[in-house]
# Entry
Amino acid sequence: MTQAEIIKALTDAIDQGAYKYGEFLPSTRALAETHGTTQQTVAAALTVMAGMGMVQVQRGSRAKVITGKPRKIKLGTYRSANRKVPTGTTAWAKDNGEGSRESPASVSQVVTTEADSDTGIPVGTQVVERTRTRFDADEAPCQHKRTLVTVEMATLTPEGWTGLPPMMSPEDIAPPEGLSLAKWLGMGVERVLYDICTAPATGNAAAALTLPDGTPCLRIVSRGVREDGSVAYATVTTAPIRTSISLEIKDGDAADAVEPKVGSEKEGCR
# Structure
């Protein structure tokens, strides 16, 4: 097992109650034998988990669990006004300095897996995946964004549109002023839900941010929910843990309901 896989396995075990708050984990030797890896890899994984506030590591002693099962903190539910700027890109670029930029979108069709379970899109669903990376003014990668759109929603086109549906095109998408992308395409999204937590960055997200697999990062999952409770799209943003999060709410005609939350009991967002 890799370091990232050990972190996930131990985190899952803690979340499922196999190791409770205040209990000690098995020795590094025992964990190495259980997971088929070296004691050095286990020790490195425990060091990362200590940095995440999950375990306490002391020389000459087994690691102690210092966290409980994931719990939710509900900050509130808000009604936001229709946005004058279609996306958050303009405001983000202003805050991150002149020269900050986004990479071109990479678009492909994939099938959701267990790793996507916290998006609310059922595992095994065919989706259109849109990925891109944001860079600050110093050319440092600072966000990896991955949007999953159900095929039904991804093939929608605005009235009078010709050519490839906007969500299936790698081109930048700019809906008319005052409209969200979901409303412009007619997705029927009535609210947007946010989960904000820390989780180990892995795979393409870790590579895009030039971080080792298993590095603690912020994981922000936003889900566009339809009236029937189905998820039309979900965006997973991975960012270095030192990133700050802001939320602006303006008075005006109600558009999307925004419910920000810290932590989640769902797989992949802890």
